[in-house]
Amino acid sequence: MKRYQVVLGALTTTALVVVAVAAWLRLGPGSRSASAPLATTESPARAEATPSAPSGATASPSTSPQPAASLTPDPVQTVPASGLAPSAALAGEPAPSQWGEASRALADGDYAAAIPLLEAALDGASPAQSPLLRVALGRALYESDRFREAAETLAPVDAATLPEEAAVEALGLLARACEASGDWIGAITAYDRLLGYESMPADVARFQAARAYLAMGDAATAAAQLGAIDLASLRASRQAEILEELAEARAAQHDEAGAADAYAQILSFAENYAYRAQVLGKQADALRRAERRDDAVALYQRLVAEFADTSSAGPALAALDELGAAGDVSDFQRGVVLYGSGKYTDALQALRRYLEAGTGPGLDRAQYYVALALQRLEQHPEAIAELDAFIAGHAGSALLPDAWMAKARSLGATGGDVAALYEAFADAYPQSATAPRALWLAAEGLERQRDWDRAAYYYNLMHSRYPADSGAPEARFREALMAYAGRNYRRALEAWQAELANASGDGRTRLLVWLGLASRHLNDEAAATSYWGEAAEQSPQAYYGLRARDLLDGEDLLLSATAGGAVADSLTSEEDWREIEAWVAGWAGASALETSVADRPLVRHSQVMWTLNWHAEAVELLRLVRPEAQDDVGAVLSLLHITAESGITPFSIWGAERLAALGARAGAGDPPAALLRLAYPTDYGHLVSAEAHRLAVDPLLFLGLVRQESRFDPHSESWAGALGLTQVIPSTGADIAAAIGPADYRHDMLRRPVLSVRFGVWYLSRLLEICHRDWIAAISSYNGGYGNVTRWAGGEIPIVDHDLFYELVTYAETKSYIRLVYENYRQYQAIYR
Fold first, then answer.
1. Cα 453 to chain center, whole Å?
2. What is the distance between the alpha carbons of residues 823 and 821, in angstroms, rounded to a whole number?
3. Engineered SS bond to 246: which of 226, 266, 628, 748, CB 3.0-4.6 Å?
4. Whole-angstrom Cα distance, residue 445 to residue 416?
């Protein structure tokens, strides 16, 4: 968001251009490499593209583009809570009246509002203002899926007159708009021109151009562009991505042997087990298409033998069958591969044939897989019988513990006493490394059933039999917790008191909180106050210390029905930076202020990636900087300044946290307020305030949630497809859109802060409603689902005992989420209230 806050006088003239018109693109990762043209004279497509590209692109830029006129900031550095103030001038001239409102709409992702404002501004713009406004309008049109209009808007921009950062933005956006509208020649021309800029990673331009050539059917030129990339300068994951694309391009030319060579290159450095299997399968397929049957068969056989439990082994086995080359594949191997492919009935047949033959290695494994296949087919009585036979007949098998665990799963599915089975295993095999785990699982299962006494019994068995096991301390804690849950507060108190003498750190703070809770139930308020006071002093900013403080203060965890309030957008002034630097100099010395990492390639490339809207890649590149920078105070301070001013909030949060940690290690005083605000930013505060006030949500609670969900990265995306600041998953997004609109909702719209905040606040407000304003239950439901929350709470919402609820949450992710949002919320309250 900071990129569009043109009122910030601290930004340089060049940076202001970037800030005002940053294009939200997604071009690709990588580092700068070779700089040859994107096409050669041998390419007929290139020969046509250069003189007559319909995009209207100009000639390639010179190596030193002339600086353009810039956006000039308002000298009064004030940003009202309601939003951005308009800049006083654009390109050295009075700004169009629409600019202030348009710049805010751009930052918010409210393109429906931004487009008419920018169109009106462009109509009356001077020649100096026009390029900057066109880039801003082109981005808004592109993000609105109006790709052809975006390309038409951007085509007249003379990138050679712009500073490099703005030129790369303009050309990158033009290239993507041409791609999306099917103008491959226009896209290639734009990528060709991008190669003239040093800050543009050349592998990105070449990779995207290669895809455009492939779309045009020119696989030869695509392969040439990919082959020209300097792979040695790139990280392994990027090399693999490029080599896979190169293999596809060669295959499109019917150069299957060349494709196989590209896959072989990947295998020379790839380490991930499943990925290696996948690439090996692709290499074998390419060799098969190249009619190198024997080489392909050898690779398929290797897949079946070495990677039988991966999804790639199934197609390899099918290929061997088609080629009539599966004679060396045993029924055991076939059964394991079919099991891994989800073909459980076929796996059973193969494995039983192998067992009936009664010869060959792995008979115990074959019988074990038979039982697993029966489980998958939900034939649990048959699976139990098979596992019993396995246990009786293979007493020396290394799979014996796994067989007992598998039997427990089937027994549980049929309503049997799983805990007793786990205990029987531990009794029969007390020396097994799995025995303490079995007792833990017995206790955990009974805890979930809220059978407190039996759960305590098994936790006791676990830690008393295996006191040296890493899980023994937690088993001792949970034995006492089960007593507490069963209202035997005296027994719980005594058990935790016995543990306190040997506890330290967060474990000690946790015990102090629970000793206070047990003491209160025993009507010993003085002891409770003493325990909680010590916990709050020991860990003032961590979860258990904060809980202790809240318990002392009688803090209610029900959110007021009139919650709301205004939060200003994040703003770090020059005075703030001076305050931070003075604090750092006080404990690290003035020399720490002289360090700069601005010229480090990874830092420069990360800024380009962020500007081009490849946020995850930008953060990944910055993470590569961290190992050598994290203990260098000056480097951390420099990174913090760069990322904060560039609006790379996920990393500026890290920088602020790290600087505070280094200060604490050095014995410095409390961090300045400005540093804490950087660690806990209020980006998009005006959006949050408006929605939170309307729906009675505390904006600081919501900001604490956003900080945990996305670290304020509007383009954040999870493995489950959750998007945006508030990480809404596709199914939830569709449900929210059905309730509140928009009618044309698409899931990728959640990359727009204005919509992500609206959806997130609305969803949290609904959860608060059904949880009777219990914000712990609401945030737990946001992450773990309302049904699970009611189960963890014993069916009582609002939650009766929040501390017991927290300890009984069975999802590690949700438990961590509660802790972190709790800490975030209390920190936001401490900083901003």
1. 40
2. 5
3. 226
4. 12
What mean pLDDT is predicted for residues 615-635?
91
Structure tokens at 11: 């930004």
In tens, the pLDDT along 648-707 reads 999 999 999 999 999 999 999 999 999 999 999 999 999 999 999 999 999 999 999 999
CB 610 within 8 A of CB 644: no
810: tokens are 């069975």
Write out pLDDT tens, residues 430-447: 999 999 999 999 999 999
- Kindly report, residue by residue over 290-318, the tens digit of the pLDDT: 999 999 999 999 999 999 999 999 999 99
With tokens 């082959």, the residue in question is 227
Please state, in angstroms and rounded to a whole number, the distance separating the CA atoms of residues 221 and 224.
5
Strands (E), 413-452: none
Cβ neighbours for 214, distance < 8 A, ≥ 6 positions apart:
222, 248, 249, 252
Residue 155 to residue 135: CA distance in whole angstroms? 10
Residue 685 three-state SS = helix
3-state DSSP call for residue 84?
A: coil
Element (H, E) at 149: helix 147-154
Residue 397: how many CA atoms within 13 Å on its side-chain side? 22
Task: Note the helical H segments in 682-810.
Answer: 685-694, 699-710, 730-740, 753-770, 775-784, 786-792, 802-808
Which residues are 90's β-sheet partners?
A: 71, 93
C-alpha distance from residue 638 to each of 577, 604, 629, 635, 642 (Å):
11, 13, 10, 5, 6
For residues 338 and 350, what is the distance between their CA atoms, to the nearest angstrom?
Answer: 9
Q: Using CA atoms, how far apart are residues 757 and 703, in angstroms rounded to an integer?
A: 10
Question: Mind listing the pLDDT tens digit for each residue in 265-287?
Answer: 999 999 999 999 999 999 999 99
Query: How distant is the alpha carbon of residue 809 from its chain centre?
Result: 23
Strand spans (E) along 52-163? 71-72, 89-90, 93-94
DSSP code per residue over 511-536 = HHHHHHHHHHHTT-HHHHHHHHHHHH
Separation CA 761–CA 780 (nearest Å): 15
| Coil/strand/helix, residue 127 | coil
- 801: number of Cβ within 10 Å: 15
**What pLDDT digit, counting tens, does each position of 398-419 carry?**
999 999 999 999 999 999 999 9
Pairwise CA distance, residues 720 & 341, whole Å: 22
Measured CA to CA, the distance from residue 473 to residue 459 in angstroms comes to: 10
CA-wise closest residue to 754 among 2, 23, 106: 106
Q: How far is CA 313 from the centre of its chain?
A: 29
Sheet-wide strand order for 93-94: 71-72, 89-90, 93-94
